[in-house]
Design a protein that fits this description.
- With 696 residues, the chain is of the alpha/beta class.
- It has 29 helices and 16 strands.
- It is 47% helix and 10% strand.
- Strand 15 (459-464), helix 19 and strand 16 form a beta-alpha-beta unit.
- 49% of the residues are buried.
- The structure holds (S)-3-Hydroxyhexanoyl-CoA.
- (S)-3-Hydroxyhexanoyl-CoA (3H9) binds at residues 31-32, 34, 70-75, 87-89, 109, 111-113, 116, 135-136, 139, 141, 143-145, 147, 285, 288.
- (S)-3-Hydroxyhexanoyl-CoA (3H9) binds next to helix 3, strand 4, helix 4 and helix 13.
């Protein structure tokens, strides 16, 4: 609630008179009101003008374009500010100096420097739809415009640190609970309410300074620091920004405000220049490039209007296996009802259980209410009647990975589905054009390659066939956004982008093992780099039988120098599912998921290498990493040359979101171009004068 002292206008003037003297400053820098250097200079001038204008009694700062602001302009971080450059720090300093009351009126997103700006105001009012966040950590940064000093003083060190370390946005309601904002008001009344509040009794400079000078309990310092440093990843494993953020909050509890601000600024500036932040900023922009499709890709002369995405209000899934159920859950979670067709009763029963189990789990975790879970469950309809797919706007087939089986499914779907429906395959390797030819609508056929588990993994490869239309692609990107997936466009090639590259990576790992490096050492070297698991544990997880089948499907190009994989499959060592593959597994160790080195496999590699005439040799951890990463980058480079991948950044997104590539290294293509990193691939690309991504 607003304090009563703010409600009446002072000095006997009517509230109406006062409102007329409130200066409303609207953040208006489309599309997201970013606080760029240039825009900050303009804003600063407006704030200073309001301050010196005798007719202005108070100031309200609000935002245009459906949001408050997305914070500092991330593009600016690549350029060195000149002495005369104005930044959000200058704007905030001016607000703090102002003798007039400044109220923040927030609707939509208030992020990063935007929240920091609001924190410097005297009062913060938000609409129920407002979302507040300090996402700097996701860019490898910390809030660098006073956020790490003001927020702990406002709401306490621990909640402030938790909020900043998470980096996710919170609702207005939660922000009110935490004390970040002072009041929630309906959108229609926001400005009126802010003006009335601004004209209430003035918050004086002395009062502001009292908040700034407020000391946090001394014991918060050691507690915050000791606990928090232990809870975040090591600096080398992507935790650099988190550790510096904790240091900044430590400064807020140990130092006077201005000293804390200076410490924060120094830490922020170090992070801006750090490699992890550069990598994360690259990923931020790469993600936003994904759906920008060059017009030249359109297969036919299509007008701009024809590329308008089609609405997706009902989805269909064919196949109720693991993949099909995961895809159905994904649609349901996005609020798109879905019909799942399968003629196998047993599979349907299992899928029903999986689906309900998933929603109930979310209820237990407090992510869904019982009612929401029930509604989601109801939005998935299982049936064996294919005709129920007639009204679906998109149908994804997720049946057995066999071209003939899938062709038959596409023929059937083409006859049942309405003419404008998209027909998608979830294949990870098969030819999209061969499937498109089974229909009379090849322009509406595409690949939607979800990753396992489909409802969790954030990546979706959108695969275009020869005739896939621009409108189909636009619809797929729209769908990906609704499903909260990062949609990446791929050309139609065996394994598309991600798997095509992983094949080479795994083959290089095998080559190293054939040369006498143990799978355990190879995996450890890649974990050290930041992957959650190494190539052999990954192969065990996806199943060696699957790996062998894919290898065979790829033909002679895929064959390694030895038959280790074939022999392991012959020994029924299929990976985690049989508790033995490249590693062994024990139910009592890490719930059966912890890889345990197995001398049997090491001997097998040695024996096969001897038979193939491969001499054993030493390899350092650096060489292991270089060879494996080079395999990825070399293939990535080829995919770019062949036009299968559109941009190096697309490949980076695939690897970070689909294959656990450590985000603080920016993805394989970004990493290869990092100054000081010499991979064979980067070197050869440079020699051949090919385009590799460059650092800003
Ligand atoms: C910061 O504030 C540091 C301070 O603590 C200290 C300073 C000293 N800058 O995502 P969208 C562009 S760090 C520049 O597709 P949506 C984006 O590239 C900042 N550009 O829209 C895209 O451009 P284009 C902390 C930005 O509706 C266009 O806007 N803030 C920025 O799905 C539309 O973006 C953040 O990290 C930016 N800050 O989502 C917020 N933000 O059209 C990051 C966006 O040319 N931003 N653009 O491709 C977001 O989370 C989302 O963009 C937002 C809108 C939720 C705002």
């Amino acid at each position: 609630m607003i304090p009563s002292s703010f409600e009446s206008a002072p000095f006997g003037r009517s509230a109406q008179d006062d409102r007329e003297h409130v200066c409303i400053i609207t953040l208006d820098n489309p599309p997201v009101n970013a606080l760029s250097f240039v825009y900050c200079a303009k804003l600063l001038a407006e704030i200073e003008a309001a301050e010196v204008d005798e007719s202005v009694s108070a100031v309200v700062i609000t935002g245009a374009n459906g949001l408050f602001t997305a914070g500092a302009d991330v593009n600016d971080f690549n350029s060195e500010p000149l002495p005369e450059t104005k930044t959000v720090r200058d704007v905030i300093a001016a607000i703090e100096r102002a003798r007039k009351t400044v109220v923040a009126a927030i609707d939509g997103n208030a992020l990063g420097g935007g929240v920091e700006l609001a924190l410097a105001c005297d009062y913060r009012i938000a609409t129920p739809n407002a979302k507040l966040g300090l996402p700097e950590i996701r860019l490898g940064l910390l809030p660098g415009a006073g956020g790490t000093q003001r927020l702990p003083r406002l709401i306490g060190a621990r909640p402030a640190l938790e909020f900043m370390l998470k980096g996710s946005s919170i609702s207005a309601e939660r922000a009110l609970e935490l004390g970040i904002i002072d009041e929630i008001t309906p959108a229609a009344e926001l400005i009126e309410r802010a003006m009335t509040t601004a004209n209430g009794p003035k918050r004086r400079l002395s009062e502001r300074n009292a908040i700034i000078a407020k000391e946090l309990p001394a014991q918060a310092g050691p507690f915050v620091v000791a606990q928090a440093h232990k809870m975040v990843p090591a600096e080398a494993k992507g935790g650099l920004a988190a550790h510096k953020l904790i240091d900044a909050v430590q400064a807020s509890v140990e130092l006077p405000f201005n000293f804390g601000l200076a410490r924060e600024a120094r830490l922020f500036d170090e992070l801006v220049r750090s490699k992890p932040s550069q990598a994360l900023r690259h990923l931020f922009f790469a993600e936003r490039e994904l759906s920008k499709i060059p017009p030249s890709l359109s297969s036919r002369a299509e007008s701009r209007d024809a590329a308008e995405p089609l609405p997706i209000e009902l989805a269909g899934v064919v196949g109720a296996g693991t993949m099909g159920s995961g895809i159905a859950i994904t649609f349901a979670q996005a609020g798109i009802p879905v019909v799942v067709v399968d003629n196998n009763d047993e599979a349907v029963d299992k899928a029903r259980q999986t689906v309900m189990g998933m929603f109930m789990y979310q209820v237990q975790k407090g992510k869904l209410t019982q009612e929401e879970a029930w509604k989601r469950g109801q939005s998935i309809r299982f049936t064996d009647d294919w005709s129920e797919l007639a009204e679906a706007d998109v149908i994804v087939e997720a049946v057995f990975e066999n071209l003939d089986v899938k062709r038959e499914v596409f023929r059937k779907l083409d006859a049942i589905a309405k003419p404008q429906a998209l027909l998608a395959t979830n294949t990870s390797t098969l030819d999209i054009d061969a499937l498109a030819q089974a229909t009379k609508r090849p322009d509406k056929v595409l690949g939607l390659h979800f990753f396992v588990p489909a409802n969790i993994m954030p990546l979706l490869e959108i695969v275009r066939g020869r005739e896939t239309s621009a409108q189909t692609i636009a619809t797929a990107f729209n769908l990906a956004k609704k499903l909260r997936k990062k949609g990446v466009l791929s050309g139609n090639a065996f394994g598309f982008i991600g798997n095509r590259m992983i094949f080479d990576y795994v083959r290089e790992a095998n080559a190293l093992a054939e040369e006498g490096v143990t799978p355990a050492r190879i995996d450890a070297a890649m974990r050290e780099f930041g992957f959650p698991m190494g190539p052999f544990a990954m192969s065990d997880l996806s199943g060696l039988d699957i790996g062998l089948a894919v290898q065979k499907a790829r033909g002679p190009e895929a064959n390694g120098r030895t038959n280790v994989l074939e022999r392991l499959v012959g020994m029924k060592r299929l990976g985690q599912k049989t508790m033995a593959g490249f590693f062994k597994y024990d139910k009592s160790v890490g719930k059966g998921r912890e890889p345990i080195a197995d001398p049997v496999v090491e001997q097998l590699f040695a024996e096969e290498a001897r038979n193939a005439g491969i001499a054993p040799r030493e390899a350092s951890d650096d060489e292991i990493r270089e060879r494996l990463l080079s395999a990825l980058v070399d293939r990535g480079q080829k995919l770019l040359e062949e036009g299968i991948a559109l941009r190096p950044g697309d490949i980076d997104i695939v690897y970070v979101y689909g294959y656990g590539f450590p985000p603080h290294h920016g993805g394989p293509m970004w990493y290869a171009s990092t100054p000081g990193v010499i991979l064979r691939s980067a070197r050869s690309a440079r020699l051949e004068g090919q385009k590799v991504p460059t650092h800003a």
